[in-house]
Amino acid sequence: MKNTIPFLTVHELSAKIRSGEITSREAVGALIAHIRQYNPAFNAIVHINEKEALEKADEADRAMVLGKSNGLLHGIPVTIKDTYCVKGMPATAGHLPLKNHIPVDDAVLVRLLKDEGAIILGKTNTATLAMDMQTNNALFGSTNNPWDVTRTPAGSSGGCATALATGMTPLSFGSDLAGSIRVPAAFCGVYGFKPTHGVLSLEGHIPPLPGDINGIRTMAVPGPMARSIADLQLALTVLSRSNPYDRYVAPLAPDPGNAGEIKGLRITWTDHFGDVPVSTEIRKKLQEYVTTLTRAGAIVEKAGPPAMDYNEVWELWGRFVGMQNGYEMSDFKRWIGDLFTRKKVRNIPMHRKVVGPISVGKMMKALELQSKYVTMIDNFLSEYDAWICPVASTTAFRHHACSSHLGDFKIYDTPLGIDGRQVPYYVATQSCTTIFSVTNSPVLSMPIGLGESGLPVNIQVAGRRHHDFRLLRVAALLDQHAEKITYPLQKQAITDQHIH
């Protein structure tokens, strides 16, 4: 049984714990052993909460003997991205000055998980201050892709994605501003959910640095990552409940429950945005999947919001990041920064407006423009059950070295090769995702099978704001028609089980 525990879903693990087939301690112990065996090769877990996790597992088992449940996640071990504060555990965000930072309080997300009986098993690796589309930092080094250790799992929640795809955790929690949940999920072939902005609390997340004012207020979100949509639905139920820790968050609309079969679902799709290339491998897989949905009875149309100016949306994302993340920087420094970076970012629309002078007036104009696009995409999606599109221009690429740094931000002068074209690093990794960050839309990153390279191909499934539960229900129907992935270590575990 211990050999099979690492790849159980949360629902499967919970059923076995509640039935008495296994104990929470056995589950936690099996995952710790699995981490110790495989983490050196993948570097997904940077802190193991072994002593406390085993103690909490024993408490959960004693409660179960008495017929008591601690909540929806009773006795379930989970991992947390090392950007969230967990009381008594290091919270570094991969940032050297935070090497010895031990929070005295939990992030709101962590409190809610603990309130429902979850056990914090460990922390996962991240990009430095969650500011890269790969997962590496000076404290813990690089995280490797589960399908090929010479490749990246993407970032900044790459530790979460690799931990899931290698069976080190059944459920993990990341954060997303430019695709930091969605792209790692895609590169590793797991499920990652970016909720509607403002419905889950980011209090207790780094950045901002401890003690600093949080400037990113319009796009960044926390979110769950798992190996099944049902587990994401459960996690969203836990995290979206009204709670006394953060009253600022908004409630989600209830799921009307009227999406019971694939037949008749209205699906729109696209295989690219603007003139940004998407690899033939991804476009071919997406076309095959759309054909499968059509044959299953879905009403499928290739379309997008006709009035959407993608370059304007990408530049708007950069404006928000620049104005909010660097709100305290003087306009003189911004002018100098713009002068020195203008040439480097001229072909990267989402970065063209990050630096440069700011003002209250510019911020108001940005908010007004965002409102326009939020309305546009919600009106467009009111005609459909979901919008399917790529997650990135490429599948998992080989570890890609940065050329220089601007503070803690990594600059990549060497482009990524996509079907013979040289595409700027951030264009290839952020173009498909930042659109939905600007519009605050809920989006699922979902695997649809392996591409011709043998690497996972995911799609984004986007829906209307605040209809997150409805979107996940629709996605669960779509998921029934996707090719199922068996992860490399999962194949090995199955083989070992047959041998024994």
CATH architecture identity of the domain at 5-253 and 485-499: Alpha-Beta Complex
CATH superfamily of the domain at 5-253 and 485-499: Amidase signature (AS) domain
User: Segments where pLDDT lies below 50 for 5+ residues?
Assistant: none
Distance between the termini: 12 Å
CATH topology assignment of the domain at 5-253 and 485-499: Amidase signature (AS) enzymes
Average pLDDT, rounded to a whole number, is 95
Widest sheet: strand ordering:
1-3-2-6-8-7-16-17-11-9-10
Question: What can you see in these coordinates?
Answer:
It contains 14 helices and 17 strands. With 500 residues, the protein is α+β, with helices and mostly antiparallel strands. The strands form four sheets. Strands 1-3-2-6-8-7-16-17-11-9-10 form an eleven-stranded mixed β-sheet. A two-stranded antiparallel sheet has the order 4-5. The longest helix is centred in the C-terminal third of the chain and has 22 residues, at 360-381.
What attributes does this structure have?
17 strands, alpha+beta, 11-stranded mixed beta sheet, 14 helices, globular, 500 residues, single chain, two-stranded antiparallel sheet, Amidase signature (AS) enzymes
